[in-house]
Amino acid sequence: MNKSIQEAYYSNFINNDVWIVSDQLNSLQNIQFTIKNFQKHYESLKLSDNLDQKFMADSNPFLFIINNDFIPINNRQKMLEDFKKIIPDIESQKLISTYANQKFLYQSYLQLISEHPEIDQYLIKNSRNIYKVNFLNDGSIKLVATNLSDLDVNNDSNQIQKYKSFGIRATIIFPPNNSPIMKYSHFVK
């Protein structure tokens, strides 16, 4: 894909809104539950020759960026080939494929709805996902999964449109030889 086309496409996925870290009491429970379930799935993937089936199969448009390397939007097979070239380590591939999918964002969405239940009254449109992976100097892997969506009033209701869009984010860091560190954040505007 042409570099200027990539940049134009990428600009549709970014925003400059202020993200609020979810701080409700049940957030820690959600995080522990999510990590436990995903780690169990990762352990089973380690015994196979496959990546997660939901990896790079989002129903929403998505971008995938690894250490500032942009994986061009293409068919899934070509994108997986590009992913494997950028990350040759099979264990890292399996770990990232376990978390970098829409399912990983689900708990973040539930957290947003628990803090802003009125969002559930809107129609969600123009959803797009961004997955950014960075290999840190200390050997950690950082994954930031983000969903940006526009909101529209439901035609069946007489509500006034208070919000126009929202974003949810799940960030996880996998330190070497330690438990993952995770947080959820969001914005509503």
TrEMBL record:
Name the domain of life this protein comes from: Bacteria
Q: Quote the protein name from its UniProt record.
A: Uncharacterized protein
User: What is the species of this protein?
Assistant: Buchnera aphidicola
